[in-house]
Each structure stands twice: as structure tokens, then as C-alpha cells.
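The following record pairs a protein chain with its ligand, coenzyme A.
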Amino acid sequence: MIEELLPPGVTSSEAFDDAAPAPLFPAEAALMEGRRARRRRQFATARACARRCLTQLGRNPVPLLPGPGGAPQWPSGVVGSITHCDGYRGAVAARSSSLAALGIDAEPSGPLPKGVLNLITSDEEREHLSDLASADPSVPWDRVFFSAKEAAYKAWYPATGIWLGFRDATLALSPEGTFSTTLRPPVPPPVDPVYEGRWLAGPDLVLTAVARPARADR
Ligand SMILES: CC(C)(COP(=O)(O)OP(=O)(O)OC[C@H]1O[C@@H](n2cnc3c(N)ncnc32)[C@H](O)[C@@H]1OP(=O)(O)O)[C@@H](O)C(=O)NCCC(=O)NCCS
């Protein structure tokens, strides 16, 4: 599914359960010690997806340990992103010569839990979502919106190391399956703060992806 949202040159791999064996490197396994079984399985399957992406890029499968802020540390010359939620584990990767940043996010389809929307939107964004819902009530716009901000954050963070809250970004969704996010960090950003992405909403899952061309950050 995720490949529908990605430009050429991005490798992707996804799984919808943890059935396939997904061995971890010792350093990764050490990180999961004492964690709940569900988290260990999810982590391992997503790591297996990420390593398949590396193999498709012609790179060796290596441990992918989290760096500061939780972002996975991809090998030199590679950018990538990982996501997991109930019923989905996925990873994407590309050569950093072609893409400056990648961010993906998966969410279960359906409305956000009560109270969340107000925490992640401005008045203008809520009006935007209300207009979209009036035009097409079949799309879980709130969930797509939440996921798109997370995808943008995952593309932003590895390049900057700057944490942003949901109110530090303004997002506009297009019914055609694209979105544009403008990030407002507390200090002038070292990269272009506008992130463009794509979304899709199926019966069970919402997926979003940001793939920023390398030229955008030069
Ligand atoms: C980091 C965050 C985006 C993860 O999203 P999530 O929906 O909770 O979880 P997902 O399963 O989709 O993604 C988790 C994966 O994201 C990756 N990740 C975690 N922190 C990351 C970061 N700072 N940058 C990039 N990727 C990150 C990891 O690979 C993680 O999986 P792993 O721990 O198994 O390696 C979220 O927890 C968060 O902190 N959000 C607040 C910041 C934000 O989204 N702001 C929006 C405005 S820009």
C-alpha cells in the first residue's frame, strides 16, 4: 500500500501481522529486553521491513538502533522511516543522494479518540477539516490529518534534531490525496520548513508519506 504514496527510487516493505520470522541483531534485542511481547514483535517485524528496504537498495542489512529523539539511525548514505500500528508495520528507504528526507506514518482508520483533535489543531485547521468532511464524509479526515503531521515530523526530525508539537505545524489536506505542512520551529530552521506529502485512507488503515527531494534542502 505505502508504495502508492512514494516517488521512484524509494524502496518499501510492509507487513500486516508479525507472522514472519524477524530476527534482531544483538544490540536491537538488548533494547527490547523487558519490553512487552507486543512491542518486541512489532519492533522486530518493522526492523525486518527496514532491512528488506536496505537490501533492495543494494546495502547490507545492519542493526538499526534509535538515536536521540527515537529516530532510527540509518546507515550513511540512506534516509528512511519506520511506522507501526495495529495491523500494519512498514518501512521505507532511499539513497540520500536522491532524497533529503522520508517520513511515513500508519494509523488505524476511523475517528481520533475524543478530545485529541482540539490538542493537535488550530481553529483554522478545524474549519478546514470540517469543510473537507462536509464535502466527503467517507474519509476519516481527522485521522489523516494527525497521521500527516506525524509523517512530516518524522521527515523533519532526523535532519534537525528539533522536537515540534502539533501546534507548531500548519497542515492543509487536499481531497486529491496530497498535503502540505508548514513547520514553525522556535528558531529559524536549518531546512525548508514546508513539507509536501501524500495520504491514502482505506477501510482499515490510514497511511501518509513525506518524501523530500534532495534538491529541496540544498
Ligand atoms: C515520534 C512519533 C512521531 C512516532 O509516531 P507514532 O505514531 O507514535 O508511532 P509510529 O509507530 O508511527 O512510529 C514509530 C517509529 O517512528 C520512528 N521514530 C521515533 N521517533 C522519531 C523521530 N524523532 N524522528 C523520526 N522517526 C522517529 C521510530 O522508528 C519508531 O519506531 P521504533 O521505535 O520501533 O523504531 C510520535 O510518537 C511523536 O513523538 N509525536 C510528537 C511530535 C509530532 O508528531 N509533532 C507533529 C508536528 S510536526
